[in-house]
């Protein structure tokens, strides 16, 4: 599914914290926020709930060329 561009407002300090965390995880801000939203909408269960695990799973997918 193609990504959509959205405009949202976020407090400056929260944005700094988001950027710090996404940088530590090696994710873009958009990817990090999308993962958080997806985890929340999925009910917060499974291994992908933890952002570090989610990043590792994404890295594995990338190494495998998106194959599962």
Key phrases:
68 residues, mainly alpha, globular
Note down, in words, how this protein is organized:
With 68 residues, this protein is an all-alpha fold. The protein has one domain (12-63). The protein has helices at residues 12-25, 29-41, 51-63. The longest helix has 14 residues, at 12-25. The chain starts with 11 loop residues before the first helix and ends in a 5-residue tail after the last helix.
Give the overall silhouette.
globular
Number of strands: 0
Give a short account of the largest sheet.
none
Low-confidence stretches: none
Number of helices: 3
Short description:
The chain has 68 residues and is mainly alpha-helical. It has helices at residues 12-25, 29-41, 51-63.
Topology, element by element:
Elements: H1 12-25, H2 29-41, H3 51-63
